[in-house]
Design brief:
disordered N terminus
């Protein structure tokens, strides 16, 4: 068993999570039925935003498809479809749903904040602007990094280099390409949300800066495993080019955890 579990000053993460929930359960606020009603209200607002985003994305679906096709244009590959309904699915379902969800995401994130706000202390509610700005900015930073750097590099290696080496002509269906495109771009955006996740875990006292720093070697290992998956190119410089930003995000997360962790607030409030 690791020293982390043997150290009585470092309680288990699950225990800290239960303690955070129990502590906030004592806050004066809404009853269970009021919470359920609030959840219903936020879900309705989020659903309306999704519908509006979907309708806007339907109108601009051809332009959004052009953005998806652009990385293939650079390597001279044209997509194909194998089923009569593939283009209907692409034009009216896949692109509008994903595009609408991204368009509505700022408003949906705000609804999430409004739902959890009653379970926060008054001093914690001031983080709404940093939460919104960082969540939106980090997601789009990860998505743009994936679109302009990771995805084109993957296509060149998987389609151009390997097909040339093996002498095989690539025929790519629009259905498979769309799934591949969305999974990587959205996955990169989600990966960059690490500081936001740490923000909440640290604010609730579930993780601490000391815990994150003590386990940084495991974080580095996980980062390089993720990089190995998303960058099939075997050269070391390419892998480090993507690992370094993710490691910087982890280090930023440690700083975020120090900023919002309850222990720092208690030390600040305790008279010398």
């Amino acid at each position: 068993m690791s020293s982390l579990h043997n150290d009585p000053s470092q309680p288990d993460i699950l225990e800290r999570a239960r303690a955070a929930v129990s502590e906030r359960a004592d806050l004066p606020g809404m009853s269970l039925f009021e919470h359920l009603d609030e959840l219903r209200r936020r879900l309705i607002h989020a659903a309306i935003a999704l519908v509006v985003g979907y309708l806007v994305a339907v109108v601009f679906a051809p332009q959004l498809y052009s953005l998806m096709q652009a990385p293939l244009n650079h390597i001279g590959i044209q997509l194909n479809f194998t089923h009569p309904a593939d283009l209907v699915n692409l034009r009216y379902i896949q692109i509008p749903l994903v595009g609408g969800a991204i368009l509505a995401s700022p408003y949906i994130l705000f609804q999430v904040w409004l739902f959890i706000a009653p379970g926060l202390y008054q001093r914690e509610r001031r983080f709404v602007i940093p939460f919104m700005a960082s969540a939106i900015g980090l997601f789009f930073s990860g998505a743009l990094l994936g679109y302009f750097f990771v995805f084109p590099g993957m296509l060149k290696f998987l389609i151009v280099d390997l097909s040339h080496n093996l002498g095989i002509h690539p025929i790519i269906s629009v259905e498979e390409y769309t799934s591949f495109f969305f999974s990587l771009i959205l996955g990169m955006g989600a990966t960059f949300e690490l500081p936001v996740v740490i923000f909440f875990l640290a604010m609730f006292g579930v993780v601490s800066p000391r815990f994150l720093w003590k386990n940084i070697r495991y974080a580095i290992l996980i980062i390089f495993i993720i990089v190995e998956i998303i960058t099939p190119s075997p050269d070391i410089p390419t892998q480090f080019a993507f690992a370094v930003p993710m490691l910087l995000l982890y280090l930023i997360s440690i700083g975020v955890a120090w900023w919002v962790h309850p222990d720092r607030r208690l030390k600040k409030e305790t008279p010398a």
